[in-house]
Task: inverse folding
């Protein structure tokens, strides 16, 4: 379960980026400024996990919702039902008919997960030297940010995380999570809506 939650945290990096030609410091500052203006966001996602040992892949789909500054719902809808809801200091993990509520202030692990998620959303992930070493590059159609985990627990699981930014829309379109053992996961964002109303019930934790 910890690996799944870390994966959710690391892939939840919906950030905006600046125009081509600026230096890294300016790009980072513009990401943080633009992301801070994002009051809410929702999208569909397709997650494909490639298994090196089995030469196979597993495809899952779901929905993500974010409300500034401390509400998040990451929900798998197919081929199984699983939801992770963060609302302030509480986390709800829902799997089938079972619901577990956790106070993040009483769990170092979940507090770290919450911190990574929120830092990503508000644009601090690329400036967070404690959690990641970041390399930025560009192609004709993308900005690419490669994040190298600096914390021991994440280093044991992930070699690097690659964020692909669509220049035209100025938002993350794809995330790659490269695991230490050779497996890798690709998450593609679809139908992204920014600053559209979200029903408060989406973030209910009880």
Result:
């Amino acid at each position: 379960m910890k690996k799944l939650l870390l994966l959710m945290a690391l892939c939840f990096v919906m950030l905006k980026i600046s125009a081509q030609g600026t230096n890294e410091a300016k790009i980072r500052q513009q990401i943080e400024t633009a992301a801070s203006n994002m009051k809410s966001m929702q999208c569909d996602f397709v997650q494909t996990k490639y298994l090196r040992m089995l030469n196979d892949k597993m495809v899952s789909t779901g929905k993500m919702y974010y409300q500034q500054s401390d509400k998040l719902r990451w929900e798998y809808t197919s081929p199984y039902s699983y939801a992770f809801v963060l609302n302030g200091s509480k986390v709800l993990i829902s799997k089938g008919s079972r619901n577990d509520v956790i106070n993040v202030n009483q769990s170092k692990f979940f507090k770290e997960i919450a911190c990574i998620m929120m830092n990503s959303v508000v644009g601090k992930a690329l400036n967070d030297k404690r959690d990641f070493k970041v390399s930025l590059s560009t192609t004709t159609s993308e900005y690419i940010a490669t994040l190298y985990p600096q914390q021991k627990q994440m280093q044991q699981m992930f070699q690097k995380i690659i964020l692909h930014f669509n220049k035209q829309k100025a938002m993350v379109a794809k995330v790659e999570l490269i695991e230490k053992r050779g497996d890798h996961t690709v998450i593609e964002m679809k139908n992204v809506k920014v600053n559209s109303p979200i029903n408060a019930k989406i973030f209910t934790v009880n």
The longest strand covers residues 40-51. The first helix runs from residue 2 to 11.
